[in-house]
UniProtKB/TrEMBL annotation:
A Pfam family of this chain: Macro
Domain Macro: 201-387
Database matches in SMART domains: A1pp (SM00506)
The keyword Signal is assigned to this record: yes
Organism (species): Octopus bimaculoides
Keyword Metal-binding on entry: no
SUPFAM superfamilies recorded: Macro domain-like (SSF52949)
Alphabetical UniProt keywords: Signal
Extent of the signal sequence: 1-16
Record-given protein name: Macro domain-containing protein
Coiled coil: none
Length: 393
């Protein structure tokens, strides 16, 4: 699989394409997989720079591994390999490696990547225990800090020498009961970790507007236990990248399967601003609202209007289902290209507009969340300026 990480206009510029102007990223991906000779070479992109800047174009290896959880302690690596190596039993194939992550969790890698989708779209029972099987890929970051490292750091924080108000305190003071309590409070104020050792979120801002608590958090939306979380979806509900892929990876393939069924019944793509819902799978929330955001075209297609409509439709849906809490990311500010300033401003203003015109709203909690620091800064600035301190009391 070839993953495209540059803008369509960049490919048009370096390739001189004209007849493919209507292709979106997924269609382009399919085109290049079927016709690899069309993929632009590095020389070609350097020869035809975009706005004077040479493009860097690379391919990323296909996903050929699955993560298998809930493996019984009685099951050996050999038995696991025998099961997933049998095409008839598991839809798998020839295995290149099996690695144990933790007790009951293994990474199974196949020689052929095409079997991964087949393996993940069926149920697996081994020794009367149902396995949890999801696609797996290594993170791209070379120097990533592991979730366990974060957890260990926080657990050991109170054992370290700390300073406060210019006064250094020794290990002895920290071992006293008062010292332990104080250090416990300090460590908990830095970051809140969910029990799964990987769902860290940090609260940046918290205030009350009318009857609704508004919270800004930096972190992973899939870890929250609000009634609903919002997925920034495309019109085909193909959850293949960004937040959408993370939701399916953590919530289970049944989310994608239900989305496929919705599209099968609709027969037409969702339009920007429209929303649908699916069950939440293994996530902590009760439902997932899939909101289709607009693709940025410098405002020519009323993108801000459609984004505002998407945010307000999420809130309308929430109330229609009698839910009271929701988490919303910065819709369309990723691959869809809406600038962060415009995207965060629109989301915040749409949220305030909804609360203003629905005076009897039952929504009690709205969380704005993202993993990108520049988005968090944008949200924070807009929340402070749009709502105002006096209005938030």
């Amino acid at each position: 699989m070839i993953i495209i990480t540059v803008l369509m206009s960049a490919f048009h510029a370096c390739m001189g394409w004209t007849k493919f102007d209507e292709l979106d990223f997924l269609q382009l991906d399919a085109l290049l997989v079927a016709n690899p000779h069309l993929f632009p070479s590095k020389k070609m992109c350097q020869k035809n720079p975009l706005n004077g800047n040479p493009l860097k174009v690379d391919t990323i290896e296909e996903i050929n591994s699955v993560q298998v959880k809930n493996v019984s302690s009685n099951v050996s690596s050999e038995s696991l390999g025998s099961y997933f190596g049998d095409r008839k039993k598991s839809s798998g194939g020839d295995i290149s490696s099996i690695q144990q992550e933790t007790n009951g969790t293994y990474i199974v890698s196949f020689k052929e990547a095409f079997v991964v989708l087949d393996v993940c779209t069926r149920d697996h029972i081994l020794q009367n225990v149902e396995l949890d099987v999801q696609p797996f890929w290594e993170p791209f970051e070379e120097n990533i800090i592991s979730r366990q490292q974060v957890y260990d750091y926080l657990q050991n924080l109170r054992k370290d020498i700390s300073s406060k108000d210019g006064t250094f305190r020794s290990q002895d003071i920290q071992e006293s009961e008062a010292g332990k309590n104080e250090m416990q409070n300090e460590s908990e104020s830095i970051i809140s970790l969910n029990s799964d050792l990987g769902s860290e979120t940090e609260e940046i801002l918290n205030f009350k507007y009318k009857n609704c608590e508004i919270v800004l958090r930096e972190g992973d939306i899939t870890t929250l236990d609000t009634d609903a979380i919002v997925n920034a979806a495309n019109g085909r509900l193909e959850h293949m990248g960004g937040i959408a892929a993370a939701i399916v990876r953590k919530g289970g393939f049944e989310i994608q399967a239900e989305s496929n069924e919705i599209m099968k019944q609709r027969r037409i793509e969702l339009k920007p601003g429209e929303v649908v819902s699916t069950k939440a799978g293994k996530l902590k929330c009760k439902t997932i609202i899939h909101a289709v955001g607009p693709v940025w075209s410098n405002g020519w297609n009323h993108e801000i209007f459609h984004l505002s409509r998407a945010v307000q439709n999420c809130l309308l849906f929430l109330e229609a289902k009698s839910y009271t809490s929701i988490a919303i990311p910065a819709i369309s500010t990723g691959i869809f290209g809406i600038p962060i300033e415009e995207g965060t401003t629109c989301t915040v203003m749409a949220m305030k507009y909804y609360l203003d015109i629905h005076s009897n709203s039952k929504i009690k909690h709205i969380c704005l969340i993202d993993v990108r620091k520049e988005v968090i800064r944008g949200f924070k600035h807009r929340l402070e300026t749009v709502f105002g301190i006096s209005e938030c009391e």
